[in-house]
Please model this.
Amino acid sequence: LTVIADEAARVAATFQPQEVSNLLWAYAKTIGQRVASADSDDDSDVAALAARRLYSTLLSYASSRWADFKPQELANTVWAVATVGYAADEAWWNAAVEAFDDKVIAELRALEAHPQKRAAGGAPATVRSQPQNVANFLWAVAKAMPASCSESVKRRVFDDCAVSSVRRMADFKAQELGNVAWAFATANLRRDDLFTAIAEEAIGRLREFTPQNMANILWSYATVGRGSSALDQEFFAAVAQEAQTRMDAFKPQEVANIIWAFATAG
Model:
């Protein structure tokens, strides 16, 4: 990993956006938060130090070529940054969010304008993968975008994702539904149209949800102040019923989050 990182950093200017996002994703998966915690004064973890140098080089490269990145490449890049905890600066985040908003939301709206393209798997692969891109991107922004970044830029991409996603909830997998709800709650953004649509979609698909998904989605609803409407109460009750059938699979923190959500929502 050390040799690969050093060589990749040396020839980074020759990479295509997909190669950049793939490298960042791979090191996030293999080294994780060791990238962000690597200390140049401590050479005991040479692989992490090399990965940190690579991140610095590739993020600088990305910031100058966001227009060339496809939606999935953008999503994978910011996911990797958030996953390792690398401290990208405000300008980097603002530009990444604006680029994602321009590309992904335009494609989602184009798809909505021509719904026949969605029938029988007729949509291109780049469009079919949009829910995962949206979920991963919003998760990363909520987790790692500095509070000092442009609030209007962040709010715009969240709002655009909400408007587009509400119309195609059935395309989202269970984890993606949970991640979107978690991202909005963590960003302290309440979109009732989105949360209503997620509840309506998820309530009939709870068997697809893992214990972590169920705990996170109830935590998200309670965090934004949802839980009192008839739909929300039905949703909470359905999650509780499903959770009871699999309680031995829940971790203590997940149980605690569910109890907290019920107590907070009233």
The chain has a mean pLDDT of 90. The chain is about 70% helix and 0% strand. The two ends are 50 Å apart (CA to CA).
